[in-house]
Amino acid sequence: MSYNSDYPDNEADHYREKVGRQPGNYPPDDYDDFYREKGMPPTGYYAPPPPPRRNPGGVSTGLLVGLIVLVVILAITLTVLVTLLVTGFFNAPGNKTVVIFATPTAEPTTASVFVPRPTTSVTTFAPVPTSTPAVATDTTTAPFTTAPVTTNASSDPDTIFNAGNVAFNAGKWDEVIANLEKLSPSDGPYVAAKPLLVKSYANLAQSLIDGQDNSQDNAKRTLDLYNKALALDSNNTDISSAKDIADNYLKGRTFFDSRQWQDAFNTLNTLYSNIKATSPTAKYRDTAEMLYNSLIQLGDIQLAQNQLDDARNKYQQAQTLDVADKSVAQTKLADIDQRQRQTQTAARPTATPRPTPAPTPSPTPTCRSNFFAFNVAQPTVPNVPDKGSSKVEGRVLNKTNQPIAGAVIRASSGTFTFTTTTDGGGNYRISGLGRARWETVVLSAPGYSICTSLSAGVNLSGEATFIARVEFVESVP
Question: Is the CATH code 3.40.50.2000 the one for domain 369-475?
Answer without folding.
Answer: no
